[in-house]
Each structure stands twice: as C-alpha cells, then as structure tokens.
C-alpha cells in the first residue's frame, strides 16, 4: 500500500538533542500552579516541619545540659527536664504532623496534573494524522506516556519531599552554626556540602547515558514483545516462536550490559559520597571536641552539632539516586511533552463551520475536482482524479491493488490533505469545515476490520455510543449476523479478544458493517466490505446493502465486480487515474479494462470457494 511507504518525522525529544531541563519544568508548572493555594499551604507546612525538625536536637541539647544538676536540686530536676522532655516529644510530633499535612495538601495537585496531562496527550494523539501513527510503534508511545506520567509524580515527590526540605534545612543549620557557634562550623559544613553536591552531580551526569541506554533497550524490548504478541497468529502460522524469542532476547542482552555498567558506576558514586561525608563529620566533631575541652561548648553542644550533621547528611546519602531519578523523570516528561508538540498537520481552520448536509435522508453530493495526492514525493498515488457522486446514488470504484481506490476513502475522511485540487461535499470544501462534523456524516466499513478487546455488543455500539440493545440487535440483523450471535453461549456479551482475534474474518467484517449501519451516516463508504464474507453471506448482504444505499450517497470500493453490478456509476482506476466510467452494462459494451476484469472473475466462479471463512 502506498501509505506505508511514508515516514513520519521524529518527535522532538524522542531522539537527538532534548530540550533543556528548565524548559520541561516550565511546561509542567502551569498544571501545578492551577492550585496555588494548596501549593502555598504545602510549602508553609514544609517550612514549619523543618523548623520543628531543627528544634528537636536543640531541645535534646538543652535536656542534656539540664541534667548537669547539683545534688539536692530536686525542684529543678522535676520541672525543667520534664518540660524539656515534653517539648522534645511535641516537636517530633509537630515535624511529622506538618510533613503529613504537606503530603496531604499536595497529593491532589500532583494527581490532578498527572490526569490532565495524560488526558491532553491522549486527546492530542487522536488528533494527529494517520501518517504519524503509521510511522510510530504503539508500544513505544504507550511507554512514553506511562513513563512521563510516572515521571511527574517522581519529580514532584523528590522536589517537594526531598530536595526542597534539604535545602531549607541546610540554610537553617548554617544560620544556626554561624550565629551560635564558631564561624568555622558553618564554613566546614558549607564546603563539605558543596563538594558533596558537585561530586554527586558530576558523577551522576557521567552515569546518565548508561541509564538512558537502559531505557532505550527497555522500550525496544517492550515494542518487540507487544508487536509479537499482537501478531500472535502470524507467529504461529510460520512457527517463528524461537525467532521472536531471539529478537526479544537480543534487546534484553543490551539492557543487561547497560544495567551492569550502571551498577558499577553507582558503586563509585556511593564510595565518593561516603568519603566526603566522613571527612566533613570528622572536622566538625574535632572543632566541637576542642570547644568542649576549652570550655566554650558543653556536652549538649557536642551532641547537638553531631546530631545536626547526621540529620543533614542522611537525606544527602540519597542525593545521587534522587538527582538521577529527577533527571530521568525530566527526560521521560520531555518525551511525553514532545508528543504534545508533535505537529497535528491536519487542523481545522480558525472558526471553521460545521459541515452542512442539505438533505440528510438522501445524502450529500460528493465531488473530486482535479485531485493530485501522494503519501511521499517519490510516488504519486492519485493523478488528476475528477468525478461526482450525485446525492442518493451509488458509485463503485474498481481496479487492481495499488490503483489508489482506498486512498479515496482516506481523503474523504481527511486523514490526509490533497496536494492539489478539491474534495467537495454538498459544495463545501472539506478542508474548510470541522473535521468532527465531516467524519460524523460518513460511515465506513474498512477492508481490514480491527475490533476493541470487548464484547460484540460494545463493538457494534461503537457506531453510536449509548445506543439501546434493540438498536444494536437491529443493526446486527441488517448485517446478517444476528443468528450467529444468538447461538453463542454469551450472546451479545461475548468477548471478541485482542483486535477481534476470537472471531473469523467474516464475522469481524459483519461487526464492522453492523456498527456502521448503527451510525446511520449520510454518506456510506464500503472499502472491500464483503471481501471476508463467504459467497452465500455476501449475496444476502448485497441485497441489504443496496436497499440501504438507495437512501444515501454511497461509495463502494470493490475487488469483486459482482458486488457492484447494480451501482449507478462504476469508475475503473489504474495507476492513480480513472480510465473508464459508466454503468455495468455500458462498461461491458465498451469492451475495455472492465470487460477483461469481468471475464477473469466470471471464469473463476466455477472454482470452489476456498476462503476458509467460518460463516457460522
């Protein structure tokens, strides 16, 4: 098929240089700032929790110093230490309380942002062109969305619950050291933390490409697995289970190699971090011990300094992991936001009106005027195609595979825009009207029917969501499948399986016919609608099809000429051009391409029907 030769342009951020981290964060902020009050309250609780957290070791220091009592001072022993113990417990409880309040307040902000962004990406993907989806692997896109939404939660969680609290505590500890103790305490702490942070960031940056390689291999393995499982029948037909396993294992081996290198680099990071922490603690404790010896500090001060440093270094132990995860989250978010930035290409013009069908019961007039179209510059599919389908009539298009027949249907749905010429529906250029109104007016039974992994009733009702069971049953009867459904144990609630694999080709096609009939469109398109039906069912459906088509404008794209003999107009296409047109009888009398096609198919009628379709 011509359309499979096109290639979609790569997504921004999906390969090559990504956008800056700050750009990604800037894209996220509007979703978070929709809840400004909650954000402000959460940050206030965060600051309060850190003040309470700082107060805990200070109270502990006072408690230790208060225990240095002279014999006989029973009153002080009963009041002062007891009050400090109560204050100590209250501060610890306050720190936990404010932390939980912060998480409670921010939970709605995070989840709301995740929901809105995921929904926006989902809607945007549906708004993109068919060309985009033909050039992308569904497994990879799904993985990008999954990682992106998870990345939002990770980034917000680490930023609000780890990085920001650590920065606030860092500032508070430095200020406390500088105000109450020797300035060297603040200097040593500051220098040690700066060295620690710089070392962590540099080494983590060095390790990032290993992590990125792991993700790429993970995505490829996932794409390979999903593609193989979606084509389960094809794999079984050719006995290629081992071949698929080897292809899958190839990506798993690359993932394994990258994971091992990532683990080795992590060991280097952890060892360097612990060395910096150890040196900083030794220097701080040495200064504190000197202060106790010369009398400028108490034992409580020594305990306080040690506790503050340990309290500060504990979250820093995870800085490498946090930084790496935040960087990875930003990368994952960038890929998801890149989906949002993918060009929609086929867009409604500003203030475009809805398509107006002047006589819905009869159907619209459809005109192709000098249409030129190609999926890519190397191969032109349609060349100066012009024809008219009068309102309420049936036009059939026949020709060899690759002649451009199915392209006519895609252009009518405006999956693509023509390079030259116009397509008019009731005199309105389809590029000037809303796409939603255009597609609402058209019903199609495609050549390749793909069903949702749900019930038969759901798949038929997809033509008109919310339709009653009676309407669904009526559509099934019109599609000549009600008898088959009623003999199933679960009837209309029968599950059709992934992509409808539990149904035969003919059964799937009849479901597609039924849901199109349920839609009751003004314009009907049958793209090889009976190609998967056996001869008996095809003949029964033909009568129903033409009864339905008498009241609507209909375009039939067919390979079997027997299905179009009653058409008001037959167009014969070859290499993107209309080479013959007329009624069945007129074309036979012309003794041209149509006549030779008819004779070839007539000669094959005596051959047995070996389609293998289970018509049930």
TrEMBL record:
Annotated ABC transporter domain residues: 366-600
Cellular component aspect of the GO annotation: plasma membrane
Compartments, as annotated in UniProt: Cell membrane
Molecular-function annotations in GO: ABC-type transporter activity; ATP binding; ATP hydrolysis activity
Residue intervals passing through the bilayer: 39-60, 72-91, 155-177, 183-204, 266-286, 302-323
Listed InterPro entries: AAA+_ATPase, ABC1_TM_dom, ABC1_TM_sf, ABC_transporter-like_ATP-bd, ABC_transporter-like_CS, P-loop_NTPase, Type_1_exporter
Any Pfam family hit: ABC_tran
Superkingdom of the source species: Bacteria
Domain named ABC transmembrane type-1: residues: 40-328
Signal sequence interval, chain numbering: none
Keywords, in A-Z order: ATP-binding, Cell inner membrane, Cell membrane, Membrane, Nucleotide-binding, Transmembrane, Transmembrane helix, Transport
Protein's name in the database: ABC transporter ATP-binding protein/permease
Lineage: Bacteria, Pseudomonadati, Pseudomonadota, Betaproteobacteria, Burkholderiales
């Amino acid at each position: 098929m011509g359309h499979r030769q096109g290639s979609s342009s790569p997504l921004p951020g999906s390969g090559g240089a990504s956008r800056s981290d700050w750009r990604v964060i800037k894209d996220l902020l509007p979703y978070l700032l929709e809840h400004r009050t909650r954000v402000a309250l959460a940050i206030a609780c965060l600051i309060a929790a850190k003040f309470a957290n700082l107060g805990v070791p200070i109270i502990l220091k006072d408690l230790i110093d208060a225990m240095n009592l002279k014999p006989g001072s029973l009153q002080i022993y009963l009041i002062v230490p007891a009050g400090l113990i109560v204050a100590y417990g209250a501060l610890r409880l306050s720190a936990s309380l404010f932390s939980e309040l912060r998480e409670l307040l921010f939970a709605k902000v995070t989840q709301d942002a995740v929901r809105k962004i995921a929904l926006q990406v989902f809607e945007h993907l549906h708004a993109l062109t068919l060309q985009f989806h033909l050039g992308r692997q569904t497994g990879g896109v799904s993985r990008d969305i999954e990682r992106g939404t998870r990345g939002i939660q990770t980034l917000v969680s680490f930023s609000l619950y780890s990085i920001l609290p650590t920065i606030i505590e860092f500032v508070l500890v430095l200020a406390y050291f500088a105000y109450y103790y020797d300035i060297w305490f603040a200097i040593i702490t500051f220098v040690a933390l700066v060295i620690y942070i710089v070392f962590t960031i540099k080494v983590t940056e060095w390790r990032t490409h290993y992590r990125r390689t792991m993700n790429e291999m993970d995505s490829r393995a996932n794409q390979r697995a999903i593609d193989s499982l979606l084509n389960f029948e094809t794999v079984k037909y050719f006995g290629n289970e081992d071949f698929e396993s080897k292809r899958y294992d190839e990506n798993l081996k690359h993932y394994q190699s990258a994971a091992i290198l990532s683990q080795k680099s992590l060991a280097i990071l952890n060892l360097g971090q612990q060395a910096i922490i150890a040196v900083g603690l030794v220097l701080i404790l040495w200064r504190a011990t000197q202060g106790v010896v010369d009398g400028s500090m108490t034992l409580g001060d020594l305990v306080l300094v040690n506790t503050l440093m340990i309290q500060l270094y504990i979250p820093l132990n995870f800085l490498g992991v946090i930084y790496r995860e935040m960087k990875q989250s930003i990368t994952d978010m960038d890929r998801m936001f890149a989906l949002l930035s993918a060009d929609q290409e086929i867009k409604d013009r500003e203030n475009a009106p809805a398509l107006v069908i002047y006589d819905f019961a009869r159907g619209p007039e459809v005109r192709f005027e000098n249409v030129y179209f190609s999926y890519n510059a190397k191969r032109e599919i349609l060349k100066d195609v012009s024809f008219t389908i009068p309102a309420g009539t049936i036009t059939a298009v026949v020709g060899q595979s690759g002649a451009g027949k199915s392209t006519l249907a895609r252009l009518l749905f405006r999956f693509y825009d023509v390079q030259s010429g116009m397509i008019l529906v009731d005199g309105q250029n389809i590029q000037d009207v809303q796409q939603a109104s255009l597609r609402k007016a058209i019903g199609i039974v495609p050549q390749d029917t793909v069903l949702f992994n749900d019930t038969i009733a759901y798949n038929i009702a997809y033509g008109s969501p919310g339709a009653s069971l009676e309407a669904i049953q009526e559509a099934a009867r019109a599609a000549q499948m009600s008898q088959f459904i009623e003999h199933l144990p679960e009837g209309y609630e029968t599950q059709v399986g992934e992509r409808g694999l539990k149904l035969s080709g003919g059964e799937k096609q009849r479901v597609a016919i039924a849901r199109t009939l349920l839609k009751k469109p003004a314009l009907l398109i049958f793209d090889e609608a009976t190609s998967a039906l056996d001869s008996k069912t095809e003949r029964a459906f033909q009568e129903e099809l033409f009864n339905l088509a008498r009241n609507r404008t209909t375009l039939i794209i067919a390979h079997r000429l027997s299905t179009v003999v009653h058409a008001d107009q037959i167009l014969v296409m070859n290499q993107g051009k209309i080479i013959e047109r007329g009624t069945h009888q007129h074309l036979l009398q012309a003794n041209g391409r149509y006549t030779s096609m008819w004779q070839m198919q007539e000669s094959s009628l005596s051959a047995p029907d070996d389609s293998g379709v289970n018509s049930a």
